[in-house]
Amino acid sequence: MRIRTKLVAYFLIIASLVAMLGGAAYSRVRSIDKSVQDLADNAIPRLQLAERLSQTQREQQMAALSYVASGRPEDRQRYLDLSERFDAELAKLKAEDSSDEGKALLAEISAERAKFTQAGSQLLTSRDTVDRSTTSLRSRYEEMVQQLNKIRQRFVPTGGAASDVGAVPVSLRNQVNDLLLGTEGMLHQVAREFQIANAFVLSPDDALKEELNTASTLFSSSLQVAYNAGGSEDRVILQGVQGSMRAFETSARAMINAGDVSRRARGAFPEASDRISGQLAGYVERQSAQMTSAKEDSTSAVSGAEFQITIISLIAFAVAGLAGWIFAGTITKPIIRLRDAADRVSTGDVTDVDIDVDSNDELADLAASFRRMVASIKFLMMRGDGRDDDEEEAGYTLRAAS
After folding, report:
1. Which residues 6+ apart lie within 8 Å of 254 measured at CB?
2. DSSP code string of 209-278
3. Crossing angle for the helix pair 232-346 and 44-70, nearest 10 degrees?
4. Is 362:372 a contact under the CB 8 Å cutoff?
5. Could you give the CA distance from residue 63 to residue 78 in angstroms, rounded to a whole number?
6. What is the pLDDT averaged over residues 350-357?
7. Residue 113 contacts by C-beta under 8 Å, 6 or more apart in sequence?
């Protein structure tokens, strides 16, 4: 192999080592980049989305409770808007998280979310029912009071006017008293039922239900007393009162039922909300753990890359040094031998100057040329020795002849 070829091979070895080092470094950098990309594309967006869901959950709970307390339409609409936002973001989170653990957590959140939505709907519906029933209750209450006052005003005039009861014949006074007693009883009981229905909505209590039933029974008794004691004109009014009372009690019962629904929903609603918040907190913790793991993977990849690059660099330097030492030896050893031989030849010592170079390059050519040079020198030296002998012999002959 020619020296030029050896130099090219040597540099190719060095270039290969550099390429290996660069490839290893590139591979590690790609690994780091993938870890960071996974962190940016998956863990961080899911973490942010889970935190938004938790915030939306709290805001929706507050909106529902605010509507139940105030009945403001804007609170109701805000609850519905937040519900749509939560469901859309939860669906997006399900689509983005394909891990088994993530799917299991999101399935639990969906199950609790169904309970929360059901309880929230019950709260809104009960509030709507209470509002409608309260309007109807007040209207029927005012209607019955107006009708019953028509009977009272016949015998108990307003404005301080004298009562006409004294003008009633003695035989009819007991009947009139029963009529007025029944009328007063109905007015009292309908007012009582109105208060009970409103009190139950504010603070549901089974004892209030019993009081409502009692007031309804007493109202019926008072109505019967007044109906039996009243005349034909009174009975027409009382029949109207009886119809209004049916509608009144229907609204009162609706309010009671709405209060019961609201009471149950008030218990289930915050419980479901708290469970959802806890599950979302667990999901956020899981995403945070994934971020920490990804960060640790990136740190480990960086450390691994640094270690790998250091090791490969050391190996590359060692291999390059060894290859250079071997290559330098293949060149310098024959040259040193030729130098030493040339020194001996320069002093006239042409013995033991045969140089053998076990290669097929320029140094082998140089050694061959050196050997030819030495052979030529030997030949000339041999010829020079012969001429000296002849000249001495001729000189001796000339001196003898003279």
Report:
1. 129, 132, 133
2. HHHHHHHHHHHHHHHHHHHHHS-HHHHHHHHHHHHHHHHHHHHHHHHHHHHHHHHHHHHHHHHHHHHHHH
3. 170
4. no
5. 6
6. 69
7. 86, 87, 90, 272, 276
Report how far apart, in Å, the C-alpha atoms of 357 and of each of 10, 142, 194, 329 are: 21, 131, 125, 12
Distance CA 111, CA 91 (A): 13
Instruction: Work out the average pLDDT over 292-321.
Output: 73
pLDDT band at 98 (very low <50, low <70, confident <90, very high): confident
The answer to whether 223 touches 186, Cβ cutoff 8 Å, is: yes
With beta carbons less than 8 A apart as the criterion, state whether 256 and 212 touch.
yes
Question: Where do the domains of the chain lie?
Answer: 3-123+277-317, 128-263, 323-401
Rounded average pLDDT over 348-375 = 74
Between 357 and 139, where is the model more confident? 139
Name which CATH class applies to 128-263: mainly alpha
- Per-residue pLDDT band for 263 (boundaries 50, 70, 90) equals confident
Q: What are the Cα distances from residue 189, in Å, to 142, 177, 249?
A: 13, 18, 11
pLDDT of 154-190, one tens digit each?
Answer: 776 555 444 455 555 555 678 888 888 999 999 999 9
First-to-last C-alpha distance (Å) of the chain: 68
Give me the pLDDT at residue 152, please: 82
Closest CA to 39 of 379, 342, 288: 288
Q: Which spans in 39-169 are helix H?
A: 44-70, 73-96, 100-155
User: What residue type is assigned to position 63 of the chain?
Assistant: A
Contact between 350 and 381 (Cβ < 8 Å): yes
For residues 326-348, give the mean pLDDT: 76
| Predicted TM-score (pTM) of this structure | 0.61
- CA–CA gap between residue 201 and residue 196 (Å, rounded): 9
Q: Find the helix or strand (DSSP H, E) in which 343 lies.
A: helix 232-346
Question: CA 201: distance to chain centroid?
Answer: 40
